[in-house]
Amino acid sequence: MALASLRGMGTTITIQAPAGPAEAYLTGEPGRPGLLFYVDAIGLRPQIEAMADTFASWGHTVLVPHVFYRDGSAAELAPQGDLREDGAREAFFAGGVMDRVGALTPDLSGPDAEAWVATLLEHAADGPVGVIGYCMGVRLAIRTAGQLPDRVAAVGGFHGGGLVTEEADSPHLAIAASQAAYAFLHADHDGSMPPEAVTTLAETLMAHDRPAVNLVHRDAPHGYSMADTSMYDAEADEHHRTLLRDLLAQRLG
């Protein structure tokens, strides 16, 4: 692991991931309960770093890996314009974002997750960790909990998309192998997580006796937590932070 640069409260480090060097943002005091933070489809950028700094201020050591490291650096893949402007977010997504998301299949993200958690534990307390995700990052968070059940004690998932599918590797199926508690906050104006999917997720959590909060925020869009985009909703953002802080306090201390 090599030091790359300093940004905000945290540090940009390089992780030797399965497919090569990967950037990651590390923030918070060393030796605190660890929190692995999976980005949304837009990727690692100042908004994500600011959120990670906030979560670190709650008493955690937070690691945010650049999960798209196979496709280029975080700076190369980041938006070049203001995604709060009319049409800017849509234009950014039209530039191949979903191709990157679709290419990050479980056979790639699984080995990556082991590298992310191992690196987090080099800096955090040697104990259970939390894993959180936004948008497509929620899928990664759920899968990591199922992959590392003895390590992951808490999972937070916010405006997650495609959590319940008909495929054999549907993210929600990983809940069965996990030992974590969960907090989900969906958006009712989110076509990627319709009501029937929310219901199936709830049934899966109950079937496997996983402690969980699985709520839908009214009048909120997909991406509600991201203040650097046109989808931001302050009320839903505050709701998700309350749920997340409660989850981490209960499960990680």
Task: Explain what the structure shows.
The protein has 253 residues and is an alpha/beta fold. It has one domain: Alpha/Beta hydrolase fold, catalytic domain (Rossmann fold, 3-Layer(aba) Sandwich). The chain is 35% helix and 25% strand. The chain has 8 helices and 9 strands. A 9-stranded mixed beta sheet has the order 1-2-3-5-4-6-7-8-9, with helices on both faces. Strand 4, helix 1 and strand 5 form a beta-alpha-beta unit. Helix 5 packs across helix 6. The two termini are 28 Å apart.
Class inferred from helices and paired strands: alpha/beta
Counting DSSP H or I runs of 4 or more residues, the number of helices is 8
Helix content class: 25-40%
Order of helices and strands: EEEEHEHHHHEHEEHEH
Mean pLDDT: 95
- Rg computed from alpha carbons, rounded to a whole number of angstroms: 17 Å
Q: What is the count of structural domains?
A: 1
Shape: globular
In CATH, the homologous superfamily goes by the name Alpha/Beta hydrolase fold, catalytic domain
- Which strands sit side by side, in order, in the main sheet? 1-2-3-5-4-6-7-8-9
Based on the structure given, which CATH architecture is correct?
A: 3-Layer(aba) Sandwich
Record the SSE blueprint.
Elements: E1 2-7, E2 10-17, E3 20-27, E4 34-38, H1 46-57, E5 61-65, H2 74-77, H3 88-93, H4 97-103, H5 106-123, E6 129-134, H6 137-147, E7 152-158, E8 181-189, H7 195-207, E9 212-221, H8 234-251
Parallel strand pairs: 4-5, 4-6, 6-7, 7-8, 8-9
Antiparallel strand pairs: 1-2, 2-3, 3-5
Helix pairs in contact: 5-6
